[in-house]
Write the structure tokens for this entry.
Amino acid sequence: MNPSDYKEAIEQITGCADLLRAAMETAALVTRVFAERGHELVVVGGSAIEFYTEGSYMSGDIDLCKKRTAPIPLREQQDIMAQLDSRGGPRTWKVGPLFVDLLGTLENESTAPLRTLETPRGAVVLVPPELLIVERVLSATYPQQNGEEEACAKKLLAACLDNSVPIDWNEVTRLAALPSFGVGDALERFKGEVLHGPR
Amino acid sequence: MGRADAPMKTSWTWEEWLQSRKARKAASDRITTESIRRAASSSDRRLKKAFGGQRGPAFNRES
């Protein structure tokens, strides 16, 4: 894509009223311009949860992490994001209608594969739902109960239990039992409540 | 998004994604149909300034 192609794509995304669709297309453009410089990005956080759940969870920003640990100099990040006529930086930009945050290196304790969406603007790579589930169960239950996070965890579980999102349940169970999460009991309780209602 | 006896699906075309959105929304709505967007976060200042006091635009699903 040349600079005018990117500008046209951003204008089209700005005219898109569907938030998740706009977010996925924006993430694809950002992924693309970084990939052209050899940097792989992964969508994390609320927009990844929204992709898996359609749960009306995400806000107006898209969180991305670097897949590799190699640093990307801030000046290079600015150069890359300038191709999308972005504003701000060096870690948060406004791109079209949405904000884009580049958070750092992906912390992924899961062995589950990253997921991929091929959009008309290029590919988007997403953090696996196996990891998102245990992260949300943790934030829903520790250090105190959090109703917002519990609803989010249950929406993820509902989409996965319904097989609307294929998932490796053995991996979810393994992650939940790790000392870094320690949410095995809460996971099973949430799954039961999603399947059968609260006790 | 896939059958239980098939290899786990890990990538989607745009068309597959658009067609599967309603099923995920229906599953999600069994928990609540209300927005579960966080009430607050560290990004609130810029978000609320950009989105008329909200933390993001309306969802407005097209499919």
Notes: Chain B touches chain A through 44 residues (CB under 8 Å). DSSP finds two helices and one strand in chain B. Strands of chain B lie at 11-13. Chain B has a mean pLDDT of 90.
